[in-house]
Specification:
Layout lengths: L7 H20 L7 H9 L33 H12 L1 H11 L6 H13 L4 H22 L30
Helix pairs in contact: 3-5
Length: 175
């Protein structure tokens, strides 16, 4: 094989040689006992490796009764410590003053970090359930505090683009 191809014919020949070599290697047993990979090699489909797995290939997690819940069941104490330091840093406080007009007390970050340290000693299953409950309660408290949706009304109709075909036709025709 040449390192550079001057025409499409040479490139097609190089690709077909590469596929034949891959078939020969798979026939020699380099890929053993993996029906998914063997099927994809037989079909010679490069993009098949990016397809979603079939139903028989997928194993659903059975950690909780409803695995589609959006609350995490793991917590990184390093990440919680980083968030705590970021909250107390000058940049974090300036950001809070800019956004909300006051200095933040960071009690929520302290409570998350302390919770993470306390749960490290629990069993794996107990830890997952406690972390799941912690995030669920935190989300419920956040809903009680309100959000921007309490102030702003959601649009029911799509807005017209700002500079498109206006009635007088003079201002929107600058293209």
């Amino acid at each position: 094989m040449s390192s550079t191809s001057s025409s499409d014919g040479d490139l097609d020949k190089t690709i077909s040689e590469w596929i034949n070599n891959a078939d020969a290697e798979s026939d020699q047993g380099i890929v053993k006992n993996d029906p998914v990979i063997e099927d994809r090699i037989k079909n010679k489909s490069f993009f098949s490796q990016f397809q979603k797995p079939k139903a028989e290939e997928f194993v659903a997690p059975d950690e909780f009764e409803n695995p589609s819940e959006a609350f995490p069941s793991e917590m990184s104490c390093t990440q919680q410590f980083d968030e705590l330091v970021k909250c107390y840093s000058i940049g974090g406080q300036v950001r809070n003053v800019y956004r909300y007009g006051s200095i933040r007390d960071c009690n929520d970050r302290w409570s998350m970090f302390k919770f993470c340290i306390r749960t490290r000693l629990d069993s794996e299953e107990g830890k997952k359930k406690k972390i799941y409950e912690f995030y669920r309660q935190k989300a419920a408290e956040d809903l009680k505090n309100g959000s921007s949706e309490d102030v702003w009304k959601a649009r029911t109709q799509r807005r017209k683009p700002l500079f498109s075909d206006q009635e007088d036709g003079a201002e929107g025709a600058s293209q």
